[in-house]
Amino acid sequence: MRVLHIGKFYPPYPGGIENFSAELAETVVQDQTATAVLAHTAPGIHHTQRYIKNGVDVTLAACHGQFVYAPISPAFPWLLSRTILRFKPDLLHLHLPNTSAFWALLSPAARRLPWIIHWHSDVPLDAAQRKLRLAYRLYRPWEQALLQRAKAIIATSRRYLDSSAALAPWRDKTRIIPLGLGATSPPTQSCNWPENIGMVAPLRLLAVGRLAYYKGHDILLHALAKTPAAVLLLVGSGERKAALKKLAQDIGIAARVRFAGAIDDAELAAAYASADVFCLPSIERSEAFGLVLLEAMRAGLPVVASAIPGSGVSHVVRDGETGLLVTPGNADVLASALSRLQEDSDFRIRLGQAGRQRWHEEFSMHAVATQTQKLYRTLLGLD
């Protein structure tokens, strides 16, 4: 089989979709599936890049910026046709949301191939961004045309599928395949946590993600203020960084929080290895799955996450078995869950062990790649 993935960005550009799609491509290529990727460079890189990485043929179209999260890339449609001609794929695997995927509708070469659409999330119309809601009026007809044309659609959880208005007309051709992660090597360095400030053994809390409004980091900071025997390492950068730092100062917890920013893979692995609890306090359905939850489960960490209605987070985390689910946006409830884990180390260990076992059985990249390749073979009539 020969598969061409159409994505938005590609590592080292940060993001859960980017990391997952790259790891999926690198995994299936090891199992006799020739794989290519067409995506964009990081915004501001004005030249096209092409290289082979871990057996995957990668082409990144020059990206001159973004407009309402849409890459500005005049070369992309030409590169799509050229890559199909050069690579000769048997099918296209399109990762959405991504406006550049719409060019497949206008490409005769692309339309001759079967498509799989990997539905990572809806466009978040509940977001507090009016321009996004307005832009969706133009986006939606193209989105629905892609879904209609696709041979199959992959949703990452039943919960998310059931709550998605965009996918509702296409449920009969939608398959559930979760996101996944491969194994990782033991950490090779230590991690810099906040000072103990007098605590003998503080509860080490880890949160990883873009510092954006829907991630709920302000709720986590307020919960930390109510959990005096805890320190927090917050990994990630974003538009809310300054406001969150000010909040930590205002409520008197600045000494117990380290804003680590974007860190390299080695330090991130060390953070997961040395943490006691992982927190995902997101407040909106924009958190469609939570790939960082799998990173925490893989590391054997118990997780505390928001039970967001219609999100896949409640599928990933089994409440009381692999972690604790809490009411979104409620700092008191979150603080209560953290205090429970701080007081009961045996419970923490049981949750972490169960989470690691579930990652291995259901969310390992091998398991996910096997399901994905089976879908490829079915669409191509090879099964």
What does this structure look like?
The chain contains 14 helices and 16 strands. It is α/β, with parallel strands linked by helices and about 375 residues long. The model has no long low-confidence stretch (mean pLDDT about 95). It comes from Pseudolysobacter antarcticus. This is Glycosyltransferase. Pfam families: Glyco_trans_4_4 (PF13579), Glycos_transf_1 (PF00534). GO terms for molecular function: hexosyltransferase activity.
Strand order of the largest sheet: 3-4-2-1-7-8-9-10
Approximate shape: globular
Mean pLDDT across every amino acid position: 93
Strand content: 15-25%
Order of helices and strands: EHEEEEEHEHHEHEHEEHEHEHEHEHEHHH
CATH architecture tag of the largest domain: 3-Layer(aba) Sandwich
Please, what is the CATH homologous superfamily of the largest domain? Glycogen Phosphorylase B
How many structural domains can be distinguished in the coordinates?
2
Secondary structure: number of strands:
16
Query: How many helices does DSSP assign?
Result: 14
What is the name of the CATH topology of the largest domain?
Answer: Rossmann fold
- Any low-confidence stretches, pLDDT <50, length ≥5? none
- Top CATH class of the largest domain: Alpha Beta
Helix content: 25-40%
Over the alpha carbons, how many angstroms does the gyration radius reach? Answer: 21 Å
> Which secondary-structure class do the elements indicate?
alpha/beta
Report the biggest beta sheet as strand number plus sense, adding barrel if it closes. 8 strands, mixed
